[in-house]
């Protein structure tokens, strides 16, 4: 049917020129092949790979230039580096004020807040830095121009990358953020390649060296790679980080497949996954907090309420507290003789008990010896019987063999 329509298309569509027909056929074939390959000209992930690589290079270059500016201008005004941490604000202040003597008379409200402005002006009056020439300041301001321009271009590039990520991978961006998502795509090479990876590979993507080192040395493998920088993993505590990283990698694998192969351009899958991870994070944090509270409670000394149900020690009976009628005291001599008699009787009883125990021990030892002898004799008898039976069997076998040999000879 399709072949017939294709061959008779010119007669079916009247009033269309040959050139227009060729253009229509080309457009139709392109759109059909694009539909079959699930390819869209808007979803070009090469731009993301190049943009994130350039962003990393700009960060390194910006850090190098900013440190050089602080070291260079630090000879003239060393206190300012401790007050101002922002590299762009630091460079703008140098460009606007120049020498530190001019800072007091310069309006810095556009660059710094009031508190920092006052602090910088106070520090400039009592600074212990050295003097610099006009040529030195000229070179420093030229470097400050580079820092400011690179910072502005970096902000512009970040905005471009953010928009591209929302266009190409909305679900992944909603789940892990645009920077982490772009780094995952760049590390894999393309969005389609990342979609083919399982969740376990996405979890340790970027930690290949640590993984192979752990496998080689037979240690524990790493729990996370690039996904560690995701905001969800960063929110988790030290104990829950591994579990949240695994869960984030699982949801990221689903989100990437939806972005690469799905027809929708919305971020519903990523948002749903993020909500589930946040709920799981709250659950884990609550469990760890309960365990910690239990552990702290066990260390706290017991209160009177806790001691209420403990078993108390029973006090022994004190005979001294009995009230009895006192007897007439005996003379000291009679009492001493009675004590001596008691001691003698106690000693005799001890001797008798010791002698009886010695006799019992001797009887037990004799019994044990007899038992051992009887056992050894029984063993010897049984062994002798077995030997005799074996020797008889051997003799019988020999006799049978000899008879057979004689018969065969005859």
Automatic annotation (TrEMBL):
Region ranges (Disordered): 331-410
Domain Nop: 168-286
Any one GO molecular function term: snoRNA binding
Keywords, ordered alphabetically: Nucleus, Ribonucleoprotein, Ribosome biogenesis
Gene3D superfamilies assigned to the protein according to its UniProt record, in alphabetical order: 1.10.287.4070, Nop domain
Positions with biased composition (Acidic residues): 346-359
Family membership noted in the UniProt record: Belongs to the NOP5/NOP56 family.
Full protein name: Nucleolar protein 58
Name of encoding gene: NOP58
